[in-house]
Predict the structure.
Amino acid sequence: MSLFLTLRVALRALAKNKMRASLTVLGVVIGIAAVTTMVSLGQSASALVQGQFEAIGTNVIVIFPGNRRREGLSQATVTLTARDSAAISDDCPSIVATSPIVGASAKVIYGNSNFSPQDMQGVGSDYLLVRNWPLRRGEFFTQRDIASANKVCVIGYTLVAKLFQTTNPIGESVRIKNIPFRVIGVLEKKGANMVGQDQDNIVLMPYTTVRKRLSGSEFDNVNAIMASARSTLLMSEAQNEIDQLLAERHRIQPGEPRDYVVQNTTEIANIFSVVTGTLTLMLSAIAGISLVVGGVGIMNIMLVSVTERTREIGIRMAVGASSGDILRQFLVEAVLLSCIGGVIGFSLGIGTSIGVVSLINAFSSGTPWKHEVSITAAVAAFIFAAAVGVFFGFYPARRASRLDPIEALRYE
């Protein structure tokens, strides 16, 4: 018997008991739908995390000041300087650019309006290169502005909306701690991050201006240094170069604790991806239990079908059907049930995951989730559904193929 004819016979047999067939595939439908939903949501979460770390900048390494131990006591001191930032940029071959970071906090006043930005930073001239953050309009401050501690600033899109509204902010003067600053640029809009923090609520100034004019400090200390590696493959090498250079500059002897912390954002992103991937795998495994339950249901129904169609099997054997033909027919029926359940379950899972992502985006103020559909997951779902049909349908099919034709014809 050809495969095409076997499929026709299998479809005709399943169509005789539509309700029973529908209830039989229900377990497979639920299992495939649950696995598809979990995998899709897991990939969406992983893509969101990766996107957020990419928004920080291109291959970013962040250096924070650490604790310096003196006479047995651990003292939190600011141990990084702008000269360290310049040395990293000049002496580390794997680094393409660096920027010192000096934090500040104050209200920004324009005319009769004032606004307190969430993020106010003094940075270097290569900050936008490190952060991979283009300008929407205007220009960024130069090394000359930094050397002269010029009173210039670049603002985020939120400040444009809050203070200037329809007015072009380029060239306008704002006051920060009663000091006039000229707006020379507007950053490209980035939106909120995954925790809902507005990334456009930011003011950037030369770090020398923040340190001398806003903080009144004559020291060269900075709160952090951001560095950008030349490529993702060079992240570990760049991190080692920074560590060796700073250890030498800070005169740290072998075995002594570092007075700085070097963090690789790619490693942090990979850790988050591993966590989300592990959770997705665990939830998918739990959801896959329903596939086993569905497979047991298919086996039970196929055993019932063999019993009900014993005389039919005897007649087919009597007119020349081989044991292989009988085995193939019932095996195809079991696989067909599983594959139908797989198609319905996958479609239901995609619809469910789209609905869940839509609900998350509706109630979350953070970065919108993007729905991810894995072709690999789709193929795996169909293969697994077919495997369930083969595994749980083989015993009933084998039992049917081993029936004695004479005894089958006598069966009532």
Observations:
- The two ends are 27 Å apart (CA to CA).
- Residues 3-54+270-410 form one domain.
